[in-house]
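TL;DR need structure tokens for one chain.
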Amino acid sequence: MGGSTHFSVFLLVAIILLCSSSKTVNATCYASEKQALMDFKKDLKDPSGRLSSWIHDVDCCKWEGVVCSKRSGRVIQLLLQGPDPEIHVVGDEVVFVYPMSPLSGKISHSLKNLTHLRYLDLSQNNFSGIPIPSFFGSLRSLRYLNLSRAGFQGMVPYQLGNLSSLRTLSIGEVFLPSDLRADNLQWLAGLSNLEHLDMSGVNLSTASNWLEEASLTFCVK
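>> reply
TL;DR here they are.
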């Protein structure tokens, strides 16, 4: 009887130690996701070296702008927003000075391999008129997508309507002229969990019933 009791106590202590250790030990990133990020970096122009920590010899969960799940090691956030400008008044003019250069270049399809990505922020960069990638619509785990003031142009891809878990979508261009446009907003109906939408500056002149579609998105919850 005593031996059985001692074994039960030992088993309970072992379980407690195992559970506590699993909460404190951080997992390392997946090799496939590290390679996806390296491929993503290759297509970017980074004159200020903001991604200088993105090297093979370092765990990608420790890279600047990358956040991983502590339990699984999966990449769940990419925080790559550009720098806020410093505002200077020169005579009668207001001049925006950036402390470091924004990211530019192309956006690699390799991001599709980040299947657990929940949060993607590429705002305030300069992608020089390329369209918003339609493959963003395959990042089904996304809850937050911010592409505002990042220099995207062209048609807003209807594939964004596949992001049914999305809670925040920002694609507005407030301060600079925008060539982003949408000829319909029916895809908004797929964003059943959306709580915040910013499409300021997007040309909706050819979109029919856009007000009705936007209203349905927020009212039918």
